[in-house]
Design brief:
75 residues; mainly alpha
Length: 75
């Protein structure tokens, strides 16, 4: 029961942050965070061209990563 309650509270907190982050975080902080992560995001987006093969490759990578995490958790 505690895990379920914790998950529900966590989901609500994440939803509230996603909905109202512009009210809680100043523009200066958003610019500094964007400046830190922008080069990585640009490089990551360059890997996706929008072709069907890219979607299949990223899907396969995601499934493999989740499978690996699951295997570590079960072990």
């Amino acid at each position: 029961m505690v895990y379920g309650l914790g998950s529900a509270v966590g989901a609500i907190v994440i939803a509230l942050v996603a909905l109202f982050r512009h009210r809680w975080v100043s523009a200066g902080v958003r610019r500094r965070v964007a400046a830190v992560f922008e080069p990585g995001v640009i490089r990551f987006r360059s890997l996706q061209t929008g072709r069907l093969g890219d979607y299949a490759a990223w899907f396969t990578l995601g499934v493999a990563a989740l499978g690996g995490l699951f295997a570590l958790a079960v072990r």
